[in-house]
Amino acid sequence: MAKLRVAGIIPESVVDGPGFRYTAFTQGCRHNCKGCHNPQTHDFSGGYDVDTDDLLAEMLEDPLIRGMTFSGGDPFEQPAPLADLARKAHEAGKDVMVYTGYTYEQLLARAQEDPATDALLRQTDILIDGPFILERRNVELRFRGSDNQRVIDVPQSLSRGEVVTFEFE
Ligand code: SF4
User: Fold this and answer.
1) Which one of 13, 58, 93, 111 has the fewest CB atoms closer than 10 angstroms to its CB?
2) Residue 167 lies inside a defined structural domain of this protein
3) Is 169 inside a domain boundary?
């Protein structure tokens, strides 16, 4: 059990990654991207607390759910409870997709100093990285807002030591 600050939960989403997904919108973001669609998630004192085990239990009640998505806000502002939740989701056979305003390289650097960041990265299957850049907005892109953002296969990237990206079909 771990406490997580969220802006909201969508128990069955089809717009936050492949398949049906249980999506947690975390509360708190420092990036202030121009044109952000979720400005109510920025304030670290906003939102409400949940118990990550309750989220897991709710997700597991729905057999259609393929995986969990952490969106925001920026999930990497709360890496410890999310790493624990992602590990349990994996143990239950679900995949984990994470959105962040940080770049993969910034997270790798932070992971050297911060075990929780390292743990969440290692529990992430798909990372959508980087800030939303309004001038690079592209509505054709699946599951991301601007073309600077990458769809990263994190396990492959960590094992090869280079960024491995792919496109959703
Ligand atoms: S990282 Fe996401 S939530 Fe944060 S300001 Fe940028 S678009 Fe908004």
Assistant:
1) 93
2) no
3) no
User: In this predicted structure, what is the pLDDT of residue 169?
Assistant: 81
Query: pTM for the whole thing?
Result: 0.97
From the CA of 29, give the closest atom in ligand 1.
4
- 165 located within any domain: no
State how far the Cα of 17 lies from the Cα of 24, in Å rounded to an integer: 12
**Distance from the CA of 81 to the center of ligand 1, in angstroms?**
20
Looking at residue 94, which CATH number applies to its domain? Answer: 3.20.20.70
- Pocket residue to mutate for ligand 1, from 29, 106, 143, most atoms within 8 A of Cβ: 29
pLDDT of 122-168, one tens digit each?
A: 999 999 999 999 999 999 999 999 999 999 999 999 999 999 999 99
DSSP string, 80-143: HHHHHHHHHHHHTT-EEEEE-SS-HHHHHHHHHH-HHHHHHHHT-SEEEES---GGGB-TTSTT
Quick check: CB of 158 below 6 Å from ligand 1?
no
Looking from the CA of residue 99, the nearest atom of ligand 1 is 2
Cβ of 101 closer than 6 Å to ligand 1, yes or no, is yes
Domain range for 28: 3-11+20-160
Domain count, the chain: 1
Domain-located, residue 56: yes
